[in-house]
Structures are given as C-alpha cells and as structure tokens.
Amino acid sequence: MHYTAGSMVQAIKGLYTLQDALQEAGVRVCRNKKALCLWHSDRTPSMHVYREKVHCFACGRGGDAIDVFAAANGLETKAAVQALAARFGFQSGIPPSAIEEWHRRQWQLQSERQEEQDIEAAYWGLCGLLHRLEDIMRVVLPTPEAAEDEAASAAAARIGALRSDVEAVLDGLASENQEEQRQALQIAKERGLLT
Question: Does residue 90 contact residue 11 with C-beta atoms inside 8 Å?
Fold first, then answer.
C-alpha cells in the first residue's frame, strides 16, 4: 500500500506522538506545561506544550510532533517526514506490525488522556475541598478562645487531619512525576476524598 504525502503524514502522527517527540528530544516539560524552546536560545521556558502541538510565545515558532522531531534533529520538515517514514516502514507500505502498533498507541493515548483528565479533575476538586475545610475551620474556631471548648477543639483536630491528607494528595497530584500523580489519585479514591 502506497501513501500520498498527506496520508503518510497522518499515519506517522498516529504512531509518533508529541510526547514521543519531546521525550526523544530530551525536552523537560514543567508542571505549568511550559518548556525551553527548541527554535531559539531560551533561558526560561517560553514554549507552551498542548496536547498535540507546541507554541513558543517568545519566537512565535511551534508545531506538531513532526516539527519537534525536525527542530531537535536540525532537519527541514520534508526530511523529517522522510526520516520518520523510513523509521516506521512506510517506504514499501505499512507493515502489519505497524498497524498493530498504531492501534495499541491509539488505545494507550486514549487511556493516558483519560488519566490526565481524572488527575486534573481530582486536583481541582481537592482544591475546592481544601478551601471549604478552611472556611469550616473559621466557623468551628472563630477565635482563639473557642479552642478551649472541647467539642470545637475535637472538631478542629479532625478538620486539621483531613486538611493535612488533602494537602498531601494535592502535592502528589501536582507532581511532575506521573507515578506520583497516579499514586495520589489512588489514595484520594481510597480515602473517599473525591465525590
């Protein structure tokens, strides 16, 4: 099976994601989804990383996985497409193993996107819970003298412990390490912190 240039590019994008290209290029994406730009000398991260594209607001350059591969390897876009086509065996058509890999990657991407959405939703939900706990604490202990009341003091201790749990889980969810994020999400579910 032979491809037109457009269909070959789409097939490559199905096998080679932006995350693959960034990882291969050694680009470190910060927690705020920024990285050092590949197209200009960048001292502070100015390249924004989106789901399928990057864009540098300092130099105006950016693009998709193929553009990142091209920039990281000093290639023009056409040469980058040719190099990736050769890597995935598109010169003589798609080998069956590439089709299987494409399906596997699509399932993996869908799973990763869902996990990212779950982690983000948990993070914002727990931020809201933390604010509500702080509001409740102000009601339970409106003044330092209120701490002398045994019931108020006990309630404040329970709220404080819950706040500590929520803060610890939020730290894990905000981590740049995916495994820490996964563990934090699991802890939040196990402890019933998510509604």
Answer: yes
Q: Please give the Cα distance from 51 to 32 (Å, whole number).
A: 13
Q: Which residues contact 70 (CB under 8 A, 6 or more apart)?
A: 63, 76, 77, 79, 80
| Side-chain half-sphere exposure of 17, counting CA atoms within 13 A | 18
The H or E element that residue 34 is part of is: strand 34-35
Reported as a single tens digit per residue, the pLDDT across 139-188 is 888 887 877 888 888 888 999 999 999 999 999 999 888 899 999 999 99
Tell me: the pLDDT tens digits for 55-110?
Answer: 999 999 999 999 999 998 888 888 888 888 888 777 645 555 655 676 677 788 78
CB of 39 closer than 8 Å to CB of 61:
yes
Residues paired with 184 in a beta bridge? none
Q: What are phi and psi of 30, to 5 degrees?
A: -75, 170
135-143: list long-range contacts, CB under 8 Å, 24+ apart. Answer: 137/163
Residue 28's CB: how many other CB atoms inside 10 A? 10
